[in-house]
Amino acid sequence: MKRHRAIVAVLLFFAVFLALPMEMKGELATTEMKPLIYDEAGLLNQEEYDVLNTMANQYGAERETDIIIYTTLNPDNMDVMKMTQDFYDDHGPGYDRSHGNAVILTMDMRNREVYLAGFYKAERYLDDDRLTKIRHEISPDLTNGNYGLAFQKYILGAHKYLAIRPGVNPDSIFFKGWLHLAVALGLAAIIVGKMVSNSGGRVTVNRQTYEDANASGVLEHRDQYLHTTTTKRKIEKSSSSSSGGGGGTTSGGHSHSGSRGSF
Asked: Does 159 have pLDDT greater than 50?
C-alpha cells in the first residue's frame, strides 16, 4: 500500500508538470535559471529539482517575486523561523534586487516543522492568513513524504494569491461561480414575476372600497402594565489564542509575514 501511494504521488507530480505551458518547460533550456530550490536535506531527485526550479522561476517572474524552497536537516537545532530570517539576510533573495520581493518555504526535517514567510510585496499579498491557507494545503503531502507534490502546490498557491489584491478574501463566497449564477437566476425570477403580476392590469380596489367611514372607529382601548424582570449574566472572555505563528523582523531589519506548523 505504501509503495502504491508513492507511485501515485510520482504520477501526480509529473502530471502537473505535463500540464504546464510548453514555453515554461522550455525555459530551462533557453534561459539561465536562478537557483530558487535549496534542498540541503536531499529530499528531491534531479528531475524533481529541475521541474520545481523551472516552475519557481516562471511563476515567480509573472508575479515579480522570488518563490523559494529551503530544506535543511538543521544540524544546529535552530528555530525554523530564525533559520528563515537568517536565510533571507544571508542570501538576499529578491526578484529584481537584493533583499527584495520573496516568499520562502523552510522545511526543518530535524523537528519536522515548516515555516512560510513573505517579504516586501509578498508580505502584503501573502499575509499570515494566506500563508496559513497554503500551509494547510500542503501539510498532508508533507506528512506523507510527497515533498515534490507539496512544493508544487506551494508554488501554485503563492502564484495564485500574489495576484489577488491584499485585504480581499480569495475564498469568499462572492468569488464562486455558482453564486453568480444563482444571483442572476434570482434577479431574472424577480423581474419575470413583476412582469406577470402587472400583465393583468392595475388593481384599483383598496380598503376604502368597502369601509363605512361613519360606522368605523376604535371601540375600546386599554393598557395594563404587569411587571419587568431583569437578569444578569457574566460574559466570559475567550482566553484562547490563534495558532500558526506569524511574521516578524530579521536581524537585518527586514519585516515579513509568516505561518508555521508541524507535519
From this structure: yes
Lookup: cell for 2: 505504501
For the chain, what is the total number of helices (H) and then of strands (E)?
9, 6
Cα four-point dihedral sign 183, 185, 186, 191: positive
pLDDT (0 to 100) of residue 245: 74
| Contact yes or no for 177/78 (Cβ under 8 A) | no
CA distances from 10 to 28, 36, 38, 190, 229 (A): 21, 21, 20, 51, 68
Using the predicted structure, report yes or no on whether residue 95 has a pLDDT greater than 50: yes
Report the share of the chain in percent with pLDDT over 70: 60
| CA separation for the pair 44, 50 (Å, rounded) | 10
> Given the C-alpha cell 533571507, which residue does it identify?
88
Report whether 36 contacts 69 (CB < 8 A): yes
| 37-39/248-249 β-pairing | unpaired
β partners of residue 261: 114
Q: What are phi and psi of 127, to 5 degrees?
A: -75, -175
Q: Average pLDDT, whole number, for the chain?
A: 79
CA 53 to chain centre: 22
C-alpha closest to that of 92 among 112, 120, 132, 72? 120
Alpha helix ranges (H) inside the chain? 2-18, 22-25, 27-30, 46-63, 80-91, 121-125, 128-143, 147-161, 177-198
CA gap 152, 134 in Å, rounded: 11
Looking at residue 64, its pLDDT comes to 98
pTM tops 0.85: no
**The pLDDT of residue 8:** 46
**220 has a pLDDT exceeding 70:** no
With beta carbons less than 8 A apart as the criterion, state whether 257 and 120 touch. Answer: no
